[in-house]
Structures are given as C-alpha cells and as structure tokens.
Amino acid sequence: MREKLISKTYLRDVNRYKLEIYYDKEDYYLSIKKILNIEKPFILENGLCLIDNNYYIVEVLPKNENYAMRVYFNEKKERLEYYFDISLKNGLDEETRIPYYDDLYTDITVVQKNIEVLDEEELEEALNMGKISKAEYNIANATRDKLIQSIKNKNNKYMNLNLERYLR
Questions:
Q1: For residue 105, what are the contacts with CB-CB under 8 A and spacing of at least 6?
Q2: Burial status of residue 100 (CB atoms within 10 A of its CB: 0-12, 13-18, 19 or more)
Q3: Alpha carbon 56 to chain centroid distance?
Q4: Could you report the per-residue pLDDT of 29-85, keeping only the tens digit for each?
Q5: Cα separation of 98 and 23, whole Å?
Q6: Hey, is 134 helix, strand or coil?
Q7: Tell me: the pLDDT tens digits for 104-158?
C-alpha cells in the first residue's frame, strides 16, 4: 500500500502550481491545483491533454469512502476526465496536516461515458506478494464494483459536486 499526500500527487513535469486545500467540507477534503507552468503537456495515448498551463486538477477525498477522486479540467474549466484511486482509507496526515489516501493499487477512469478499470494486475500482485491482506483485496474489489455502479447510475455524490465554483 502506498500513502499518497494530495499536495504531491500527479504533478510530473509541473514547475509551478497553486494549491488550495479545503478542510471544512462536511464529509470530504478538497484540493485544487492550478497548473501555472509545465515543461510539456501531459497527453494520454488517445490524444486527450490532461495537464497543461492554466489547467486544474481537483481532488476530492471522501472521509467515509474507500476511494479518492481526481477531476481534470482544461483552461476553459471543462471536465476532461475522472480518475478514481481505490483506497484503504482517506485521512489527514497528523504531521503535515495534508489530506492523504492509502492507495490500493487499482483505479477507475471515466471519460465521457467510457468507464475503464486500470491496474487490476497490480492489485493481484500486491495480494500474492503479501503487500496487502485478503481483506484489503476484498475491500478494493467491493469498492470498485460499488463505484462503477454509482457512476453508471449517475448517483455518485462526489461526481455531482459543483467543483467549477472553486476554479479561479
């Protein structure tokens, strides 16, 4: 398992960014990263640019769910992709006071209506190598299934948040 602080995630090739963290939300932590300067845009194999100058990365860490949600926005504040990291738990790091999640290896992406599960082999490998327990493996799979259902049913609370109001 890998503990990830949201202040440091997904910033490859980013030279400067502005970070805002909101701790006051009832059942989630929220961070907004505005990319101010990047060496080169981050473009997926399908041609979709996810990170460039004046783009945003919004991370929502539900306090009582086993996933972290990242939403990529372009400079026009249009949603480009949802990326979910399945997690064992989400919390607030006592030393740094930065929200974190314990990554359980498998992920889900959503672009338009296309849902894709990623890194299931990493989850299997983590179980086989003793990095996670069978109970943690089961949590990851149950969370994946529940999350996919909420995405398909369009009733995922965090996907339905008005995140655009935080983008400045």
A1: 86, 119, 122, 123, 125, 126, 132, 140
A2: buried
A3: 13
A4: 999 999 999 999 999 989 999 999 999 999 999 999 999 999 999 999 999 999 999
A5: 9
A6: helix
A7: 999 999 998 899 999 999 999 999 999 999 999 999 999 999 999 999 999 999 9
Q: How far apart are alpha carbons 33 and 10 in whole angstroms?
A: 10
Strand (E) positions, the chain?
2-5, 14-22, 28-38, 42-43, 49-51, 56-62, 67-73, 79-92, 99-111, 114-118
Chain CA centroid to CA 18, Å: 18
| Pairwise CA distance, residues 142 & 86, whole Å | 10
Return the amino acid letter for 24: D
Among residues 118, 62, 110, 112, the alpha carbon closest in space to that of 90 is found at 62
